[in-house]
Specification:
2 domains; 14 helices; MetI-like fold; two-stranded antiparallel sheet; mainly alpha
Length: about 300
């Protein structure tokens, strides 16, 4: 008795009554899960952006509302409650005049300009030496720079204060200038990062033409570091502009106050005029906000353009 072997049946596509072939859904569960994951990722991205935006915007809104309120209105209303009079600029006038903010802007401008010039010169020279010269313990020097960024500046203020006092710089603008200029390790790293993208063949060509090392630095390297210089000027400038601790500690004279220490005059033992401090804070914030909005593309491009060769 013989058995007849039949070949296995192959799946045939389903047909409709009209005779057209329709495709069966393939991995529908996986497709739905991928769509859910994509939707969750997009939702999480926008939720995180909204949350971070609120974290940044809400403090500014609170300060703005406080600056437009009177003292009595500030005492009886909540921080997020809008002011009744949006044209109340009396706090701004009081902060500008009683806080002597004109002198603060002048002192801050002088410290800012001199410190930035010193930072650019010292930082670019140090970066040029670290990148272009080969010497012993070069990696150790880089490591020490990294360690210096990890040490909190507050822990070294006792020794720093003694050095400033011994040099006769206490209660002078030069104390702040020396500290702003001589402790900027981040700027050196930014300049080194940019300098690594400049080919060394330019140095060799300049040496063939008879240029010395300083001539190469001044005529070749420094002009090519303009994006890095713009980045350091913006980041360092905003940091100096907003600095409070160094001017408060090393420049106690009221005639040498900066715009950050000028706001401290409205805080006394009998109470704090938060509405006036809010108005002064808005006066301080507006210039930095305008500068950042105008130059933000230089900040982003400057930080990332030297990351790769």
């Amino acid at each position: 008795m013989t058995t007849q072997l039949t070949p296995p049946k192959t799946p045939t596509p389903s047909t409709t009554t009209s005779g057209t072939i329709t495709k069966r859904p393939v991995n529908g569960r996986k497709l739905r899960s991928s769509r859910v994951k994509s939707t969750a990722a997009v939702t999480g991205k926008y939720v995180s952006l909204v949350v971070m935006s609120l974290i940044v915007v809400i403090p500014l809104v609170v300060v703005l509302f406080a600056s437009l309120k009177t003292s009595a209105e500030y005492a009886r209303t909540g921080p997020l409650q809008p002011p009744t009079n949006w044209l109340n600029f009396a706090n701004f006038a009081k902060a500008f005049t009683d806080g002597n903010m004109v002198v603060g802007f002048i002192n801050t401008g002088f410290i800012l300009v001199v410190s930035l010039i010193g930072t650019i010169l010292i930082g670019t020279m140090a970066a040029y030496a670290l990148d272009r010269f080969d010497f012993r313990f070069k990696k150790v020097v880089f490591g020490l720079f990294l360690v210096a960024t990890l040490v909190p500046s507050v822990t070294t203020q006792v020794a720093t204060f003694q050095v400033v006092l011994a040099l006769g710089l206490f209660d002078t603008p030069w104390a702040a200038i020396a500290l702003f200029t001589g402790t900027d390790i981040i700027s050196i790293y930014i300049f080194v990062q940019f300098m690594q993208s400049i080919p060394k063949s330019l140095d060799e060509a300049a040496m063939i033409d008879g240029a010395n090392r300083f001539g190469i630095y001044w005529r070749v390297i420094l002009p090519l570091l303009k994006p890095a210089i713009a980045t350091v000027v913006i980041i360092k400038g905003i940091a100096i502009y907003n600095e409070f601790f160094i001017p408060f500690l090393y420049m106690p004279d009221s005639n040498l106050g900066t715009i950050s220490t000028a706001l401290y005059r409205f805080k006394g033992p009998y109470g704090t005029q938060w509405e006036v401090i809010g108005a002064g804070t808005m006066i301080v914030i507006i210039p930095t906000l305008v500068v950042f909005l105008l130059l933000q593309k230089f900040i982003y491009n400057g930080i990332t353009s030297g990351a790769t060769k």
